[in-house]
Design the sequence.
């Protein structure tokens, strides 16, 4: 079957689907499925815009609301994960996944589904070590911390995914698995994005949690976005035994959705010709959700997942064939995901703007139904209960914010700049390109499909390499990537001038006063995300 893969959509659904239609006409193909690797921006109204951790000038309604309202319908089944530019309040309604609009399905914090026999998994958000071991405690209205931590990957999602035993065909993450750049054309990558060099050379670019999942799951395909550059790699995995057949992963990162960018890729995926055309639950994944339900945490307390270290009575939550069979029997062997999309918020009306609309914490009927069907904890309902049981709180995050300020992270000492005074207009997880000049040749990553040369996935890959054990990164032992220092330091430089942090940042080169480092930080923080006028200077 024909599968299209898109990078960061940034809410431009009309543009994305128009491009798909153009590709189908030019190459005389019919697309069966569209996958989007985060920054989807399912923004329904003005309140959703307030829940996006981006500067005000990037808060545009775009066109998702037309698909949410029913004015338009996605012309092809679309499955997406969350990134770091999302209406977090909307996606939070569907922690286990669900329909955000007819024919548009969100995989949840982490999820696995099936389509025509093809097994598709994904994990939403980006990695930040200081939130990695926390529960999903955030709820709208968000404060300056939780509007960002809401989309940070948590260890429980990685733990659940690591219980999978059956093969995965396709996996999606927003940020790249750390070290993946060593398995593609690294020279070309650094030519296009020279500001990645320091992180690439120190092996700190990307997510250690995604890297761990890549080594464990060994999917046939892995797709990512986030860094706004197209990059392909091919990883040959090491085998654990002589009997195990060699496995390899084709990795592809996509650019963002702009007319001059190569943000779409079409691939041929083997599928079950006898399978139906409906999106389906994955029985093993449902069984894993049931097995790990007792681990659900809605507090911001840091904790480790069970492991074989003598401290836990149980650490293996992988499921038996019997447990999978029980799920199938519960569903009468009908795995079709119900088309139970429901409007849960008012839709944007261009003729009646409501700029003062405030976000509210919503329990989505899809999640309620899903949890009731499989005996799972409704995370948002649990958060609501915690709010009601907590006395003295004016809003759901005040006490947590005080604890964070007074104690820091239980996972690591606070070696980062903690000045949040400028965060109201700058997101440290977002990196601007407005002032970045000629570091990349746009012609090298532009999209201009030719009728004579349809996009071919196989031509994107360089030589095959094997990841050595020395490059394996355990997410439980991982420190934060260099992005954290880079992003936060950049935040203190954006807009008005501020003095550099008193404590020099670790793992960043430069003189003892940090002069060289801060210059690199500013450029790194300007380098990835941009509006459509990115080729202009401010």
Sequence:
């Amino acid at each position: 079957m024909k599968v299209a893969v898109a990078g960061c959509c940034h809410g431009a659904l009309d543009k994305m689907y128009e491009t798909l239609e153009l590709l189908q006409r030019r190459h005389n193909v019919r697309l069966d499925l569209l996958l989007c690797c985060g920054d989807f921006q399912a923004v329904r109204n003005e309140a959703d815009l307030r829940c996006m951790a981006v500067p005000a000038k990037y808060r545009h309604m775009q066109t998702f609301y037309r698909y949410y309202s029913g004015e338009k319908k996605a012309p092809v089944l679309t499955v997406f994960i969350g990134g770091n530019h999302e209406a977090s309040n909307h996606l939070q309604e569907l922690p286990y996944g669900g329909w955000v609009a007819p024919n548009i399905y969100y995989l949840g914090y982490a999820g696995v589904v099936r389509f025509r026999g093809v097994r598709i998994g994904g994990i939403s958000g980006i990695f930040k070590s200081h939130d990695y071991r926390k529960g999903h405690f955030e709820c709208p209205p968000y404060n300056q911390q939780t509007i960002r931590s809401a989309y940070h990957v948590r260890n429980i999602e990685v733990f659940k995914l690591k219980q999978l035993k059956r093969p995965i065909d396709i996996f999606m993450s927003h940020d790249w698995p750390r070290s993946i750049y060593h398995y593609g054309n690294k020279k070309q990558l650094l030519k296009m994005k020279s500001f990645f060099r320091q992180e690439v050379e120190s092996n700190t670019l990307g997510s250690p949690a995604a890297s761990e999942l890549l080594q464990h799951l060994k999917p046939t395909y892995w797709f990512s976005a986030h860094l706004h550059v197209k990059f392909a790699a091919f990883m040959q995995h090491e085998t654990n035994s002589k009997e195990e057949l060699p496995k390899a992963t084709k990795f592809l990162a996509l650019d963002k959705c702009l007319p001059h960018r190569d943000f779409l890729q079409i691939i041929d995926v083997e599928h079950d010709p006898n399978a139906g055309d409906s999106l389906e639950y994955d029985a093993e994944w449902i069984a894993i959700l049931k097995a790990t339900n007792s681990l659900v945490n809605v507090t911001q307390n840091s904790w480790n997942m069970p492991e074989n270290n003598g401290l836990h009575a149980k650490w293996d939550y992988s499921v038996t064939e019997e447990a999978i069979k029980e799920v199938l029997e519960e569903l009468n062997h009908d795995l079709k995901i119900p088309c139970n999309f429901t409007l849960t918020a008012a839709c944007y009306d261009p003729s009646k703007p409501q700029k003062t609309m405030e976000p509210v914490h919503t329990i989505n009927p899809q999640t309620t139904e899903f949890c009731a069907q499989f005996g799972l904890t409704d995370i948002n309902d649990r958060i609501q209960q915690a709010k009601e049981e907590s006395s003295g709180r004016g809003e759901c995050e005040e006490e947590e914010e005080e604890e964070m300020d007074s104690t820091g992270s239980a996972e690591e000492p606070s070696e980062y700049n903690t000045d949040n005074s400028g965060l109201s207009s700058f997101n440290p997880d977002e990196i601007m390109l407005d002032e970045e000049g000629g570091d990349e040749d746009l012609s090298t990553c532009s999209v201009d499909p030719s009728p004579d040369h349809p996009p071919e996935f196989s031509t994107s890959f360089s030589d095959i390499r094997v990841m050595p054990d020395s490059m394996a990164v355990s997410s439980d032992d991982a420190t934060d990537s260099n992005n954290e220092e880079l992003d936060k330091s950049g935040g203190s430089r954006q807009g008005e001038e501020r003095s550099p942090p008193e404590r020099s940042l670790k793992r960043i080169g430069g003189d003892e006063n940090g002069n060289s480092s801060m210059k690199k930080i500013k450029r790194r923080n300007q380098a990835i995300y941009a509006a459509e006028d990115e080729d202009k200077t401010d």
About this structure: The mean pLDDT is 79.
